[in-house]
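Re-running the complex after MR caught last week's input typo. The corrected sequence lines follow. Everything else is unchanged.
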Amino acid sequence: MSIIYLMIPLGIIFAGLAVWALIWAIRSGQFDELESHGWSVVLDDDTKPPPVETENDSQDEVEREPDS
Amino acid sequence: MANTGVGAGAFASCFHCGEPCPPGPPILVERDGEPQPVCCHGCQAVSELIFSSGLDRYYQFRTSEGRKINDDLEMVAGIWSACDDRQELWGEEHTDGKRDLLLQTEGVECSACAWLIRSRIEPQTGVDRVQVDVGTGYTRIVWDPAQTKLSTLALELAKIGYRPHLPVAESEQRARLKERRIGMLRVGVAGLGMMQVMMYAVGLYAGETFGITDGARRFLEWTSLLVTIPVVLFSARPFFTSAISSLNVRRLNMDVPVALAIAVAFVASCFNFLRGAGDVYFDSVVMFVFFLSSARYIQLVQRHRNLEGGAALARLIPEWARRLQGSEIETVLAADLSVGDLVRVRAGETFPADGSIENGTTEVDEALLTGESAPRVRGPGEDVVGGSVNILSPVEMRVRAVGRDSTVSALGRMLLRAGGERNRFVSASERIAGYFVGFVLLIAALTSVAWLYFQPSAALSAALAVLVVSCPCALSLAAPASVSAAGRALLGQGVMMTRGVALEVLARVDVVVFDKTGTLTSGRPRICSVKINPDSPGLDEEALLGIAAALEAHSAHPLAHAFRVKSPLPGVTDVTTVNHGGVSGIINGERWSIGSADFVGLDEKDVANTGIIVWLARQSAKQSGWVAQFEIRDELRTGVRQTIDELHHRGIRTVIASGDREQSVSEVASRLGIEEWHARQKPEMKIERVRKWQRTGSRVLMVGDGVNDAPVLAAADVSMTVSGATDLANSAADFILTTDSLATVNRVMEISGATRRVIRENMTWAIVYNVLALPLAIGGFLQPWMAALGMSLSSLLVVANSARLSRVASKRSETTETVSGTVPA
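Corrected-run output:
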């Protein structure tokens, strides 16, 4: 049973890391809006390049990594 | 919409915004090779851009139609480029030089909209991250001003059909965001803490059954304490502060037993831990805190949604104004305008502040503010309200009120009052909660005494269970959660609720009193005929109309609108306005009065007429000395007949109490099938009538619009004003209808009935739950953690049941009719 003296402190450290990650995520606004992100799964199209800002998007048929 | 285009059938509706396409050669947009009709070039440009950037899934998944936007993109670019060199508008600065910009985006209505905006704006150069809040319409953009311009971002938003606005009350919005974030962090910390402590608790419980070394048990208790401390100190903090502040004002609110339960459980566990004997309840503490802070967070989000309604109103004001400095015109922020500034407003633009017209005459569309759909003519000296639209020709306006003093901001505050105001039912449940807490403390004490006597080791556990299980959260949430959900539903119907208590009373109304002029009728009266007294010398019809118009310009009475004319008016001095009477003033050295026969000093039995007669008389006139009489007629509002029928169908008595003469009142009454009507009522008489009904036990709803209705509105149990009502009436009203149709009255009553039902369900559930759980807790059958779970679930159930209200209401509005609502939901 002495393993718990190692594992539980480790677990607490991980929980601490999780809190830190949570603070970071909330600070950077990732949880500010929870409704529309679920739709991204349906709406985002990974096989096509994401829209680009140029006016003549139609010429832009090159495969590209989506960056969002 | 059907007009002369016979044979063309119904016009196709626009592919983008759903509005009917105008007749004539269709404007088309191509989707997968198939042409789709659109209504205008604006919608064409937007949907073409959406297709060409590969975002056409938006059309597949959107749940609401696009917003029609006729913005001239060049104008948008021009206006926004003025703020490219104003750093204070770029948003909060991050340490790396990036900016955190908050914009209000008009037309964001569903998740597909949010996705469209993100997909369009995020790939722009210099943009880090885009967030769109569908509920409130706020868009946050983190961007690098070194790489792109603010005007570019604004233009991109406008291109895909979402009109950007600088946020009103940005600091409040950011403060709310901060509050939500910290609330979420509290939930998160409690949640993570709960997972840890529960895991250790499993070890402790298993150890109790299967045996555990003292060292291991001690170690698990140590770690539990370590994890519980931040949860109690950070996550549970709001409960303690709220409980302490409530004790400071010597009242028991629902946070007192909650804070007490947390404190007792935590302190008792620490005590047991330190003395090394007895149970520890750290697991119960963290779980309790987690469930309660989750419920609290949900309420917080709901309350903030309500507050955004005010922001939707403020969105009516444009960001920019063209200020005249000598002969120069400079573009400034509307927020920077100060009283006395001269502003030029071009045709098609929105007035940036309240003020009066200095130069030029135009027609003004106040539809957004009053629901009044007919444009009103405004000339020099006349007031215009910020947020109304200048339709006809450019004018120069002298600013009279800005910021907090403006009409729009007053409306917003009125709306916010609903959030702060407490329902009578709410305060009743708060009182119940107070007694309840005392009762619970007594029971808890008795329980522990009894248990100490029989079985000392279980005493603390049973007392804790009593404290936790009886937490009156669900009871206290029952009414406010329902009222706030109903408030949002009403806003969607174009109704602003200014006093939450009214919603509960409205469901029990049995008499509805209508004002006639401007309420049952459209409030857009016209002069049908002019009769000039043959005995009176000199002046012709036009001159008399001029005099009448000049006098009536000083009246806010709906009838006065009939006299609005474009031609220059003679000057009036020494004006006196009598509520519910008329106006008198001196023109060209002579005192004239205009108004009811009573007011001008006539005995009106002389004349019989079906319309409303407004009399013009010289002050010196004796019994028969009238100069002219104007017959004015007023059309009925849309939906009046159905509204009255529906009310009768519900068994509600309808009454007209009007200041008008018998003939016109009886005519309207008979057309609507209203049996009881009272004509020639002065405000104090109307109040007396209302009081009389109230004394016989009836609950009275007053529906009115005029300045003279305001005191009556305040006297009635519940009051509503219709669109186009005067400010004073609105300030006395519980509900302000912004739609032109009177049918909304019945929608409000339906929502009110539903709210009452939901409050009842909630209270029944809360009480039944407590009655069932309390004996179990006293009997020691409930562990504190079970009590914590049950109590939190009962609160969540109440909140969820209330949220149902907003869905019910929106579904109903879809099936019945599309209300011409003007306030963005």
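None of the earlier attempt is carried over here. Chain A touches chain B through 37 residues (CB under 8 Å). The two ends of chain A are 47 Å apart (CA to CA).
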